[in-house]
């Protein structure tokens, strides 16, 4: 059962990460930003926007499956900790730099997400687990 | 690519719009799903589909999808996802005021830490 959670959390992070990376690619290829039909056509005229859709749909179903079984606290944290994977990947894929403010900000945000996850865990008393699952 | 001047104002507007749409969408879905008169099963979905909340939520999410693409195309992705974390805070605060959800000490600490992180990233731009 532990492995089920772990795979579920990683899958959720993976889908969320795919969505954010796709959003970035889709947006960059549709530049310049303008409130026009031309911009919409540029956004939906290249494949990356559909990567974002797939990421969202995948994350939604993984989240629903996880919530059925997994404790809400860790699930909540896992659903927001994609900031870590997205940041690391953006260094590699988009040549971005992790300057001091971004690293400090990320540390505070991650600490906050962990606190919120712990708060959720405390408020929801876990159901007794089946003897063998 | 440094973002300055009017472009920076556009980034800030898109960021605020994203917060409003994300929070509005979540709250609309909450209002749709939490309606005690909705019943069960298929009847519940029919009940929700005949009222505005579900569609308001869907509309918010569709527009948010586009706003987020525009937002991320203007700033580095690593910065964008960090600034977007503020949505977690906005939804919890809105849930407190609209649905009377409890804010325990641990939750307040989490909210303050996430806010602090977003401020650090935002001010450091």
What report would you give on this structure?
- Chain B: GO terms for molecular function: transmembrane transporter activity.
- Chain B: It is found in: Cell membrane.
- Chain B: The chain crosses the membrane at residues 53-75, 81-99, 106-124.
- Chain B: Keywords: Cell membrane, Membrane, Transmembrane, Transmembrane helix.
- Chain B: InterPro entries: EmrE-like (IPR037185), Small_drug/metabolite_transptr (IPR000390).
- Chain A: Its main location: membrane.
- The complex is a heterodimer of chains A (133) and B (125).
- With 133 residues, chain A is an all-alpha fold.
- Chain A has one domain.
- Chain A contains six helices and no strands.
- The radius of gyration of chain A is 18 Å and the shape is globular.
- The relative contact order of chain A is 0.14.
- Chain B has 125 residues and is mostly helical.
- Chain B has one domain (5-123).
- Chain B contains six helices and no strands.
- Chain B has helices spanning 5-33, 41-49, 52-74, 77-84, 86-99, 105-123.
- The longest helix of chain B is centred in the first third of the chain and has 29 residues, at 5-33.
Provide a short characterization of the protein structure.
Chain A has 6 helices and no strands. Chain A is mainly alpha-helical.
